């Protein structure tokens, strides 16, 4: 197995699009990594925004909700 030091020069040679695709791939393969919303959830949320039915939080409300 290659080390991170060995792989990084190859990663740096990837296109910006490929590098952007690599990040979620790596995170998804981490044990216990939190998973974000799937494509269906994103489409649902986007439709709510377009329909004007989405409920938004201010930054202060978000900070309070996460306990910071």
Structure commentary:
This protein is an all-alpha fold and 68 residues long. It folds into two domains: 36 residues, no CATH class; 32 residues, no CATH class. Helix content is 62%, strand content 0%. It is built from four helices and no strands. The radius of gyration is 18 Å and the shape is elongated. The N and C termini lie far apart (40 Å).
Write the layout of secondary structure elements.
Elements: H1 4-12, H2 16-28, H3 39-51, H4 59-65
Shape: elongated
Helix- and strand-based class? mainly alpha
Task: Enumerate the spans where pLDDT stays under 50 for 5 or more consecutive residues.
Answer: none
Percent of residues in helices comes to 55-70%
Number of helices: 4
Number of domains: 2
Task: Round the mean pLDDT to the nearest integer and report it.
Answer: 90
The run of helices and strands is HHHH
Q: End-to-end span in angstroms?
A: 40 Å
Strand composition percent: under 5%
Number of strands: 0
As a whole number of angstroms, the C-alpha radius of gyration is: 18 Å
Biggest sheet details: none
Q: Which tags fit this structure?
A:
68 residues, mainly alpha, 4 helices
Short note summarizing the structure:
With 68 residues, the chain is mostly helical.
């Amino acid at each position: 197995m290659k080390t991170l030091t060995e792989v990084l020069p190859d990663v740096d040679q990837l296109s910006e699009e490929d590098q952007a695709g690599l990040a979620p791939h790596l995170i998804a393969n981490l044990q216990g990594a939190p998973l974000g919303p799937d494509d269906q959830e994103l489409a649902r949320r986007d439709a709510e925004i377009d329909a004007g039915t989405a409920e938004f939080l201010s930054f202060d409300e978000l900070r309070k909700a996460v306990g910071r």
